[in-house]
């Protein structure tokens, strides 16, 4: 993808059956790194599922001015990729095989080049290409999941809690990867529980509570805001 994505989410509603988690949610996801923060159950994962066609949605979602399709494979073809919560790798397949599966929509002739690009971007994975994904550490598996999503060269990459369960050093590494991807021109939308570290690498942030937007703005300002300091960082 050569053009960065600009995703406009207008009056989005989504939920499970009759239970609406999100109502009238409006977000403007511009090129760069945007983080969505909020406590458990705020609706962060629900937002990513709705944007990826995994659950039905209401409202308008525009990707670079064009209505986002409803079906997941069409959304992927439109240039959006998701790294789901819990990574969802194939543990019995090798790293290389997991990456190949990430390129299922890429024309066959282009796949070797994409794989080479993945190994250039994630040198640690080249050494591990033939290791079974299930035998890697949590941080390494998260890296495979990100590399797999990047195989289709998305314009917009979505990450659902990439730092979940990782040691502090790996958290920094994964958030650094998200930052690099954004700097290289892929718009990144990331859900995180790690508020302080996420705001330190992000350009902008949104804070959700019980499905509602309670704060938004440049990450630097959010990090200093009363809402964030009192609820998440422990005001001092
Ligand atoms: P977490 O960090 O815990 O994942 P979250 O902000 O991602 O939190 P969601 O997973 O989006 O929150 O959940 C929002 C609400 O939707 C919660 O009340 C949750 O119980 C509910 N919910 C999530 N998944 C389902 C489902 N499959 N069926 C019914 N309700 C669901």
From TrEMBL:
Alphabetical list of PROSITE patterns matching this protein: ABC_TRANSPORTER_1, ABC_TRANSPORTER_2
Name of one Pfam family that matches: ABC_tran
Alphabetized InterPro entries for the sequence: AAA+_ATPase, ABC_transporter-like_ATP-bd, ABC_transporter-like_CS, BCAA_Transport_ATP-bd_LivF, P-loop_NTPase
Superkingdom, taxonomy of origin: Bacteria
Record-level Gene Ontology MF annotations: ATP binding
Domain ABC transporter: 7-235
Keywords: Amino-acid transport, ATP-binding, Cell membrane, Membrane, Nucleotide-binding, Transport
Protein name in the entry: ABC transporter ATP-binding protein
Species of provenance: Hydrogenophaga electricum
